[in-house]
Structure formats: C-alpha cells, structure tokens
Specification:
Layout lengths: L1 E6 L5 E6 L6 H17 L40 H9 L6 H19 L9 H13 L4 H21 L24 H14 L1 H11 L5 H6 L5 E2 L5 E4 L1 E4 L2 E4 L7 E4 L2 H8 L21 H15 L7 H14 L4 H8 L4 H5 L6 H9 L17 H4 L5 H4 L5
Antiparallel strand pairs: 1-2, 3-4, 4-7, 5-6
Length: 399
C-alpha cells in the first residue's frame, strides 16, 4: 500500500492511498515516485484513465505519468458518488424504501451542498465537522444532524470497501442527544378516546384499538390484511408487512414478523367493520383505497377533539400508550419488546419511566422496612421487568 501526503504550493494537502501494481519493494518505490512527480506537475487524476490490466504493467519512467485509477475509474467526488452509493449499497442491502428516501434527502439537501466537490477518498474527520456546522447553522435537530453524519460515514466507508482498501478512521463527532420521554395518554384519557372513536364510526374505533390495544405502527395499520386476522386457536394479529407511499413493504420496521394477541374489544371492533367479499385490506377509505398516514392522522385528531383531549392525531402516541400500559401491568420487558417488534431492548427500556411506584418503594426503603408501604397492584416489581426471556421466547415460540 502506497500512502502519500503531498503538500501543494497553495497550502493544500492531498493524500493518495493506492495499491502498487508491482508487488516488490523496488517496483513500489518506483510507482510512488511516479505518483509524486504527477502530483508535482499537476497531472495526477487529470489525464485520460484506463482500467488496470490484470497483469502488472511496465512502469513509465517519463516525468508525465497518467493518473492512478481505481478499478472503477477516476475517484469520484461526493456528488458524483451519490447514485453509486444508493444503487450499489442501499438498494443491494435491501434497506427499506423510507430509509433510502431519507438518505437521498440528506444527500441532496445537506451533504452534497456542503461537501459535493470533495473527492470521496479524501473525506476525513474535518469534513464531518464542516457538515455538522453547516447543518447546525440551518437550525436542524440533533437527530437529523446525526443521521447526516451517519450517511456520510457509511457512504465513504462503502467506497473504500468497494475498492478493497481499509477505510481511514473517522471522528464523526455525533451530537449527544438528551433522552426524551415518550408521549402517551393517561388511562382516563385513553378510555375517553376509545369511547369517542366508537361514537364516530367503526373504522376510527378500530384504528385507535389497533394502536392502543395492540401496539401497531401507522404503516402496519395501513397494510393490515384480513388474512392477518386470526381467531383460532386464539384471536391474534399476524404483523408481517408495512405500507409506505401507497406501496406494501414486505416485513416490518424491525424486519421480523410478530404475533400480537387481541383484546376482546379489538375483536369486536374488527367484527363490526364492513367487509366486502373481495376486500383484502382491513381498513380502506370511502374511495375504497388503502388508508394513508394523513387519513389516519385526521381520524385520530377527530377522535381527540370528540374526547375533549388536546392533541395532533399522533399515531405513535397510541403505540406508546400500549407500551406504558403493559409496563404498568408488570409485563416483562422482554415480552413487551417482542409485542412491539423492537430490535433492541434499549428501545423498550425508554418506557420504564412509568415505574413510579417501584421508584417510590426504593427511596422509602432507605428509611427502614416500616417506611416502605407501596405495594404494586399488578403483583410484579421492577426486578421482574428485567427478567431474561423464557425458553419459549428464546426459541421463537412467541411468534
């Protein structure tokens, strides 16, 4: 591996890391001298490029040397490498359409405007700092900035890996984010919302219960089919797909199908829905097309107004309510993780703020046994929340 840091007269430093076509010490040194002369004369990367032949080429001893090309041609700039990254990495890795759209937006709106002219193999830690400052000056959230830094890192590493080279170490400098508590409905508000939704209509009632009593995501509600509703041997929902931009996506956000038992009132709500003979989706609009996120948000906002609750029709608030109700009932975090379809237990742990009773008991115990008066109504303590999964869960029998 040849590694050159060349200092130009204008103060720029250009780093070149390439593999010598001649795998001998003498050949590598001669190849390195050719690159240095090309850098000094300003001809490096500017002449017409040809792909390296499979055999070792004869070294050019003249003072004018053609640029050293990768197996894919000249090293592209960040802007020029966008399509290769999306099609060669994100699509090939089968990332979800929503993730790819997010990557495209970050590249188009922030990364390319800030760093588009930088050669992809010259991206270093300083460029991550430039991108972070540029996005911060736009008033973007820390999460959005971190997403942009992550895309730049993944894109750069993909280029080095594609070329068969070891990527340099980057200091992306991700912003430390404050952990935020999830919004949820208090028990009385949630029951009022369920009652108000039932008065509005069976579709609104079902939407509220699918999210609040079963924890479905908005896209999962839109993609739910009648074949996913099963009543034997027990009433359950089989969550196997999601919907994004009027298109069903195979699999869920966590890339793992899951089974969620239904409450009696959810079974009744589904049974009250009009069901045409050839209707595939559980929920459809009046125009007989699939539900959209906007349609669901509008129905939830209408139910909130009818229940006298201030809100914006946020579907995830209902999903958070489902999780916090399970926490309050003393259900193990491992079981809640499976019901919600989380990939990581840390995501589920954010709901532990509901365990106010256990916290009060812990503080009261500092004053002695007589001071501890709190008794969990659900019969489980914080210790049970963190119990490891049962053999059935570990073996996937919960699914």
């Amino acid at each position: 591996m040849i590694d050159i840091n060349y200092h130009h007269l204008d103060g720029r430093t250009q780093r070149v890391r390439v593999t010598s076509p001649v795998q001998t010490r003498r050949g590598s040194l001669a190849y390195e001298r050719e690159i240095s002369r090309a850098l000094a004369s300003g001809t490096y990367r500017k002449a017409a490029l040809t792909q390296k032949p499979p055999h070792a080429p004869q070294l050019n001893t003249s003072h004018t040397v053609p640029p050293i090309a990768s197996s894919h041609g000249a090293t592209p700039t960040v802007a020029e490498f966008v399509d290769d990254f999306i099609n060669g990495h994100s699509v090939v890795e089968r990332l979800r359409d929503s993730t790819i759209d997010s990557q495209r937006g970050l590249l188009r709106n922030h990364i390319v405007p800030a760093l588009g002219s930088v050669l992809i193999d010259e991206v270093r830690s300083m460029h991550f700092g430039l991108l972070k400052r540029d996005m911060s000056n736009k008033g973007l959230s820390g999460k959005t900035i971190n997403n942009g830094l992550t895309v730049l890192s993944r894109m750069t590493r993909y280029w080095f890996e594609r070329e068969g080279e070891e990527p340099p170490r980057f200091k992306a400098g991700l912003i430390k984010l404050d952990e935020s508590e999830a919004e949820f409905y208090e028990p009385a508000d949630y029951e009022s919302l369920v009652s108000a939704a039932a008065e509005i209509g069976p579709d609104v009632h079902t939407i509220v219960l699918l999210m609040g009593d079963a924890g479905l995501r908005q896209g999962e509600v839109c993609a739910l089919r009648w074949e996913d509703v099963r009543h034997t041997p027990e009433p359950v929902l089989r969550i196997r797909r999601s919907r994004y931009k009027d298109k069903d996506q195979p699999g869920t956000k966590g890339r793992k199908p899951r089974t969620v038992p239904m409450t009696p009132r959810l079974v009744a709500a589904l049974g009250a829905l009009p069901h045409a003979r050839r209707q595939t989706l559980v929920l459809i609009r009046q125009d007989e097309l699939a539900m959209t996120p906007k349609a669901i948000q509008g129905r939830l906002a209408k139910a909130e107004r009818a229940a006298g609750i201030e809100g914006r029709g946020l579907s995830h608030k209902l999903r958070h309510t489902f999780a916090t109700r399970l926490i309050a009932a003393g259900v193990s975090l491992w079981v809640i993780k499976e019901l919600l379809g989380h990939k990581d237990l840390c995501t589920t742990q954010r709901y532990l703020h509901m365990l106010n009773g256990a916290s009060s008991e812990a503080i009261a115990s500092l004053a002695g046994p007589a001071a501890s008066t709190w008794e969990p109504s659900h019969g489980n303590s914080h210790g049970n929340m963190m119990a490891p999964p049962s053999p059935e869960i570990e073996n996937g029998q919960l699914e």
